[in-house]
Amino acid sequence: MSGGVLCTDDECYMGEALKEASLALESGDVPVGAVIVSSNGTIISRAHNIKEQLGDPTAHAETLAIREACRITGDWRLKGLTLYVTKEPCVMCAGAILNSRISRLVYGSVDTKAGAVNSLYNLLNDVRLNHRVIVTSGILQRECTILLKEFFELLRRGCRAV
After folding, report:
1. What is the pLDDT of residues 129-144, one digit of tens each?
2. Rounded distance, CA 124 to CA 76, Å?
3. CB 3.0 to 4.6 Å from 28: which of 56, 98, 156, 160, for a disulfide?
4. Which of 25, 36, 13, 41 is nearest to 96 (CA)?
């Protein structure tokens, strides 16, 4: 298990994703964190945004956690797994979720500017696509939103990291 934590509910797993988001904040990146959990409750992978650190626009928490889960499971199909992420996924990440066949997504904060799950688009449940994802939103929404607001307030003041 990644991190040695066993949770029993969505709030606990989202708390683990928030820990990852805090690591992104500390390094000056948009504070988004993700964990992927098996059907038996084991955290398989965890990641946070490292776009600034790597200079890589694809280094989102979701894509990094998916890559690691695929490596650990030995399969690109992540059927039966749940992805917890602190912010509503963008189009790129929603595409990765669909392509990896993740069964369930749980996210905290909505993204009215780039959200591809409920806000701007509804990619994960588009009937024209060959895979659907069960979505739960708003888990620890307040905590997830506060972390994002802190980051963008610091950025407006000219600071990159806490």
Report:
1. 999 999 999 999 999 9
2. 18
3. 160
4. 36
